[in-house]
Amino acid sequence: MTSPSPSLPAKIFAFLCSFGLATTVLSLLLLITFLGTLEQAEHGLVVSQARYFESFFVDRIDVAACLRALAVKDIGKFELPLFILPGGYTLMAVLFVNLLLGGIVRVRKSPKTIGVIISHFAILFMIASGAVTYHFAKEGILSLSEGQVSDEFQSFHERVIEIEKVPASADAKREALVIDEASFTDLGGAAARRTFTHASLPFELTISQWKRHAEPRRVTDDRGDAVDGYFVQERPLIDPKTGQAIEDEKLFSACLATVKAKDGSEQKGILWEIAAAPWTVTVEGQKYLINLKHRTYRLPFAVRLDKTEAEKHPGTERARRFTSWVTKITNGHEEKRMVTMNEPVRGGGYAVFQSTFGDGMEDGTGVKSSGFQIVENPADHWPLISCVVVAEGLLLHFLMMLARFIKTEPWRFAIGFTLAFNAAFALAMWKLL
User: Fold this and answer.
1) Which of 75, 209, 314, 413 gets the most CB atoms within 10 Å of its CB?
2) In this model, does residue 319 exceed pLDDT 70?
3) Radius of gyration (Cα) for the chain, nearest Å?
4) Cβ distance 139 to 352 under 8 Å?
5) Under 8 Å CB-to-CB from 45, ≥6 apart: which residues?
6) Same domain, 267 and 321
7) What pLDDT, in 10s, does the model give residues 165-224?
């Protein structure tokens, strides 16, 4: 007598929680990590990360860059366009489902498997922390000179276009309309353009010819895209001196902008990230500032840089330790703190890390400065919690197996030993800190 064939839902469930699927996903994760690491040498961290680890599917593989990174052969330029290789986002989502169904739902529930279940749950928690970080974390830079105070920081990579109406008085509250980068960074083609409108604006704004790395250049010939004798000149993304990709935060994008008033009159300008001032237009007697810049975020507290110092390794220019003494100002309350490498200042859900140091010699001011990396991550401590829970689960599983081997009561032996180990670990950490 033959057993009935499993239903379609049962087959799908068996496939999603199978070891075969887990092995395939882990192999593909290893592959995209290998390719992404190779391409990072030429394309930079941000581009490689977006292509391989933050995408649903890998759109192309730069075979030539990979071969050059391996020092195999320089074949010039050769890319393999494909959409069949899943990206890191897709693979981690599939791995989450596989672990949930296979490691939590399907696994046999018994005292023998309690440690394994705890470990699987912790790994799921770690994957979830990565998703929360990707979707909700904010990261940027706050640069201060000694004595300077600020409660705003700029995003490392997220660019926006701000439209601000110049207030009638200096005391008036300043407000700006913000156009997210997803709405204009695809306008790189010569004919690509997009128009933006808002009920509060007496004009429409058209953006075109966006370049990720560019600068305004004076026109030397007849060009149809020139504005006041200048055009947007695209610059290479590779540093000609080092042959390496230029870091994204050191790229300065630019684009063309056209303001069309309701009466049909037009004003054209060039938006550039590091322009000395925003582009100013006058429509119906009112001035507006239009600016291309990195997105600005506000902190729930202000930071004043009181003093900063840099230690270097003897006989070298390589940084050994950056240290900044700051004052954290929250609703008028001042708190003296010290920020150094791997020792951030935390507050209001934000972490302030020491990032860079300036001695004031390059700009000739002689005023020391510090750059602070600002991170707001709701899942900041989730990976640490996951690692601790994984360790606890594996320890519990090992102790229960050991108890059965030495023929003693598993639960009493495992729980007692685990509690004693945790107490000793907590005491050691307390003494060290």
Assistant:
1) 209
2) no
3) 28
4) no
5) 247, 248
6) no
7) 988 776 767 788 999 988 998 888 878 899 999 999 999 999 999 998 888 888 877 777
**Spatial separation of the C-alpha atoms in residues 271 and 291, rounded to whole Å:** 6
> Does some domain include residue 130?
no
Give me the residue label for tokens 């296979």: 102
Domain total for the chain? 4
Supply the mean pLDDT for the chain: 85
Which of these three, 225, 260, 294, is where a domain ends?
294
Examine residue 67 and state whether it is found in any structural domain, yes or no: yes
Residue 364 has pLDDT above 80, yes or no: no
Q: Which of left, alpha, beta for 91 (phi over 0: left; psi -120 to 50: alpha)?
A: alpha
pLDDT higher than 80, residue 249: no
User: 216 burial class (0-12, 13-18, 19+ CB within 10 angstroms)?
Assistant: middle
Instruction: Verify that 302 and 403 share a domain, yes or no.
Output: no
Instruction: Find the helix or strand (DSSP H, E) in which 23 lies.
Output: helix 19-43
Domain membership of residue 132 (yes or no) is no
**Six token digits for residue 139:** 């990261």
Give the pLDDT score at 49. 87
Structural domain of 384: 108-124+378-433
Q: Which residue has the higher pLDDT, 145 or 238?
A: 145
Same domain, 370 and 390: no
Query: Are 313 and 324 in a shared domain?
Result: yes
**Per-residue CA distances from 157 to 187, 215, 250, 295, 385 (Å):** 17, 18, 10, 8, 28
427 touches 413 (CB < 8 A):
no
Q: Is residue 307 assigned to a domain?
A: yes
Q: What is the rounded end-to-end Cα distance, in angstroms, of the chain? A: 68
**What type of residue is 33?**
T
